[in-house]
Give the backbone structure.
Amino acid sequence: MAKDGNEMGINTRLAHSGNNPHDYFGFVNPPVVHASTVLYPNAATMAARSQKYTYGTRGTPTTDALAGAIDALEGSAGTILVPSGLAAVTVPLLAFLSAGDHVLIVDSVYHPTRNFADTMLKRLGVEVEYYDPHVGAGIAALIKPNTRVVFTESPASNTFEVQDIPAIASAAHAAGAIVMMDNTWATPLYFRPLDHGVDISIHAATKYPAGHSDVLLGTASANTACWKQLCETFYTMGCCAGPDDVYQVLRGLRTMGVRLDHHQRSALAIAGWLEGQPGVARVLHPALASHPDHTLWKRDFCGSSGIFSIVLAGGGQKQQHAFLDALRIFGLGYSWGGYESLAVPVFLGDRVVAKGPYDGPLVRLQIGLEDVDDLKADLARGLAAAAAA
């Protein structure tokens, strides 16, 4: 449960937030409204736009249900729903950055975020700088007079460093910058960014909220100070999610608590087991006591999810690929948060400061809902193949 003092348990809130069945004749799920045109009763109402819904891009009962549920989890003033997790990153960045501005982005960020920054933002005249995930309060030394945004992600993509988010937020706010955080790993169940000084919390709802590897959606939730600017940019860009996808994520949200708990328990069991396996140099999971950032993780987080990485004991791409190709249950595919286990090779060649060193090649594991013993056997098969390569 998020540390927010709410009396109701998280699963109760997940089951009931976002809609009132009695608003829809008692049906427990809200209607899926397919909308573009909305009619007005008269010209005066149309001229003043003085009714709740005005056009499909500006909200429907379906989008309001999911956005309301996310706000209840995040403690946010408002949430936008966009067609993908990447769009949930790009819309806020475009909302708060202009030509001549400076943005600080953690070097261990999700690669598509880096690609957007290195292409679109630079083309638009934004100065992009990457910082070490362990910088903490030291980020104050990197902030310039034109720094407008500090973009964080904790734990880090692929390498799972934990950032001192409160210290970073304090330094950023002292300089007049806002803080964004990609919180997809923990979800608001295990970490509430806005409670730790973040201004905009970003999620790939494709992952744990949807939970079934069949929907793309992103959310960005803002505090009161940033909500108006984020919302206006969202409306200006017309980057809205489709109603069927929104409904599927709302449906998935109802069971996210029990699914995430299962992911967490299985991942911890497997991560702990992997620490003792030959062929594994390191397990990069912040909830393990062996992780260098475990104390910081324990201070700020109240749970962990199902994704972490391992470092193979020596070798290179040949051993990495041998490990992956030997797997039978783990699929080789991007994304995570679904019911199935996945494995992908980790590439760190685009990083500036957070490069390691590591003892061997990295593999990222998404632990799904399968039986733990079966997953252990599959990973043992992969480790044996890597050792023989």
Notes: The first helix runs from residue 10 to 16. Residues 1-5 have pLDDT under 50 and may be disordered. The first strand starts at residue 78 and ends at 82. DSSP finds 13 helices and twelve strands in the chain.
